[in-house]
Amino acid sequence: MSERNLTISHDENRSLRPYEDSTRTARPAVDIFENEDAWIFLADMPGVNKERLDVNIDQDVLTLRGRVEDEPQGETLLREFTTQAYMRQFQLPGDIDADKAEASMKNGVLTLKLPKSEAAKPRRIEITTH
Question: Which of 81, 82, 112, 124 is the 20 to 30 Å CA partner of 98?
């Protein structure tokens, strides 16, 4: 694997920063894997559907945002649970080919595959004799 590090923000205040006016923002749990070809992110965002999910890479910063859709069941008499939103950011190494990124959402888990650029992939150099 590479010796480059992926920077993960540990700013505790970020988890309380509002995403939308009446919403609290939580940090989704994320597992990150690296292989020779890509970085793979698995983010737990239960209740978020594809239409309420935003995945963005800007200046080597990956931003994951999602919002649980509020579905009223009738007239509200008591509300102890508020609409939940998720937000998480990661500083990426500069070797990502963002044009080939793939994302899918299944059972509340976002799977994001960020392929490495060809220049960043390890390769074998053939040795010739003269």
Answer: 124
